[in-house]
Design brief:
Order of helices and strands: HHHHHH
Radius of gyration: 18 Å
Largest sheet: none
């Protein structure tokens, strides 16, 4: 057809997204959470906006990896922030990324682990959540 340029667009988006992810990984290793998040978000935006073949294994793997990286980085950054509203936003972003990974792969260990980290961070943030969680867990075996 006349719009046969779709494959190169996907290839180009994957290439650019991979570059953003690599840059993000370097920033993550240096503890530069804000900059790393920006790179991972750019990679996701590029993949979600510019790729036409969501079933492409390379695209799916890169989406999964970037979402897990956003989740890990957002959790790490949330531990250093003091503003509770911003902490809550980062944790919500992490949870959303984990949910998207789990929608595609419901047994993904990293996504399950990160979602557990988000729950633990939220429990620490909200004392009433801690009390509620303790009550809920305490009522289980007995």
């Amino acid at each position: 057809g006349g719009f046969g340029g779709r494959k190169p667009a996907t290839s180009s988006a994957v290439h650019l997204a991979s570059k953003h992810k690599e840059d993000g990984n370097g920033l993550f290793k240096r503890g530069l959470w804000t900059d790393a998040l920006e790179e991972y978000r750019d990679a996701l935006l590029m993949l979600e906006r510019d790729t036409v073949d969501g079933e492409n294994p390379e695209v799916r793997a890169l989406l999964l990896s970037c979402r897990l990286n956003v989740a890990a980085t957002a959790v790490k950054q949330s531990r250093e922030l003091r503003d509770e509203a911003t902490v809550a936003k980062r944790l919500a972003e992490a949870a959303d990324c984990c949910s998207k990974v789990l929608a595609a792969d419901k047994t993904n260990a990293k996504a399950l682990f990160r979602r557990g980290q988000v729950c633990a961070e939220l429990a620490a943030l909200l004392p009433e959540s801690r009390a509620h969680a303790a009550g809920a867990w305490g009522s289980e075996g007995g």
